[in-house]
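Hi U.,

Before I forget, here's the chain from the pilot set. I'm dumping it here mostly so it's searchable later in email.
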Amino acid sequence: MTTITQTNKAGFEVTTCSRCGGTGHYSFNQINGTTCFGCNGGKVKLTARGAAAHALFVASTSVPTSEIVVGDKIFQDGGWRVVRSITLRPAAARTNGVSYDLVSLETQRIVYSQSPATLVRVSRGAADWNAKLAEALAYQATLGVSGRPLKKVEA
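Structure:
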C-alpha cells in the first residue's frame, strides 16, 4: 500500500490512514460501528510535520479564560460559540473563576464556569485567524519528516 501525502483544507500536511487504508472503516464494535480509531473515520490523519504545525496553530489561537471578551467566538464542546456576557466570581467564592454565557450558532444559551487560567481557543476575526494560520503553515515548511526543525547548514 502506498501512502499519499497531501494537505487538508487548512493546509496542514496529512497522509492516508495506515490503519484503515484510507477507507475510514476498521473492525466493528457495538459503540462506534466500523469507524477507524486511527483517523476517526476521516480517511486521513496528520503527519508528524502537520501535527507539529497544527499544535502551534492551536496554541497561538488559545488564550486564558480571563482574557475572553464579550463578542469573542470560542471553541467549546465541539463547536464555535459567541460570548454574550462574562461574570467574574470573587476569589473568596467556593469556585472562584470566570463564568461566561455563550450563544452557539444555533442560538442555544449555555453557561460555562472555568478557572481564569484555563486555555480556550478563540477566533477574533478572519484577519487574525488567517495570520496565525499562515504562521503555522510557514513553520510547517521548516520541519523535517519527523516533525522536528531541520538543521541549518552554514555555508
